[in-house]
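Page 42, continued from yesterday. The earlier attempt failed because a stray header line got pasted into the input along with the sequence. Redoing it now with the clean sequence only.
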Amino acid sequence: MDGTQSVMTGSASSEEVTSLLTAVLINRSVADVDHLLAGLPHPDAAVDADGVTALMLAVKNANMALVELLLRHGASVNLAETARRRTPIMFAVKTGNHELVDRLTLSSSELLVLHIVLRCGDGSLVIEFSILGSVIKRFVILGSCF
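This time it went through. Structure tokens are written below.
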């Protein structure tokens, strides 16, 4: 997402979508992003050409203040981008920010089911866990890549 390609969804204009995604991408202030959200029917109305939402960008930047703002405005933790079908929580896991992971799993009344498997370069299984709602149902550490 380079801030220039956007997809218009709902009644949001391409300019509104690009402005919001760019503001989140460059970590503008909460007040600035809140003002931009007022012009959109829903925060998930703004997606780039790859299906990346403002929430995904805020999570990738580990910007908890913008994550909180977008969640208050109703951004979905379960939408997946189109390239690799990753959701905001998958981006959060990749950042290693446990606070973000916890916040996203508790953020919605939507049922979140997530199964993560981490493997070494040789394909051997290292960590596997499943989350249902906000409860870890299974957690297995099998080894290390080192």
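Notes: The first strand starts at residue 7 and ends at 8.
Reminder to self: strip header lines before submitting.
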